[in-house]
Amino acid sequence: DSGVTQTPKHLITATGQRVTLRCSPRSGDLSVYWYQQSLDQGLQFLIQYYNGEERAKGNILERFSAQQFPDLHSELNLSSLELGDSALYFCASSRGGALSDTQYFGPGTRLTVL
Amino acid sequence: DAKTTQPTSMDCAEGRAANLPCNHSTISGNEYVYWYRQIHSQGPQYIIHGLKNNETNEMASLIITEDRKSSTLILPHATLRDTAVYYCIHRGPKDNAGNMLTFGGGTRLMVKP
Predict the structure, then answer these.
(1) B42 vs A67: CA distance, rounded Å
(2) Region B13-31: what's the mean pLDDT?
(3) Whether residue B98 has pLDDT greater than 70
(4) CB < 8 Å to A42, chain B
(5) Residue A79 and residue A88: Cα distance in Å, rounded?
(6) Theoretical Cys-Cys bridge with A104: which of A2, A53, A70, A96, CB 3.0 to 4.6 Å?
């Protein structure tokens, strides 16, 4: 158990819909990262927040957005969903953002878009 | 993007040491080498990381060559539960302020009875 929690575990929805994925970091961690893992793309970094502020952006679509709240939990919002958005979405957290700060991953949310 | 090269797959007998190689010839002096593994579709699990020196923890040992262009992850006594995809990642300031992890294809380790 990494200490990072993600809800829901599974999500099934239809194309065009909007969903929200939730992540609670480990106690004391200020950074939250979101990653997407699809069959054809592997694990890809989407976005990072540090203490409520966006820190870094990766291959995140404009239909996707995220935020980190004052209690440090984070939400990833996916809108206008397409079949290709079906994937595993992982959240990770670290103490800060330094190179030596290890990222610990949650169990993931499996999103299926029908 | 940070690039590492790993064998696509490896087999190991249960109880034997598993030695997983990784090539990171473009690594620079301030970049760390991180190892994670992913068992089936679970979240990636942190194993170990290092900068220049060899490292050991309760899970594994990390041997980094003197020129830092390659490393080996050693699982001293592999068990069936060690069957997973192992990712070697090097992580440095040029990776989007050093925060992201860039995952490659990894090595699929199969531990056999």
Answers:
(1) 24
(2) 91
(3) no
(4) 103-105
(5) 16
(6) A2
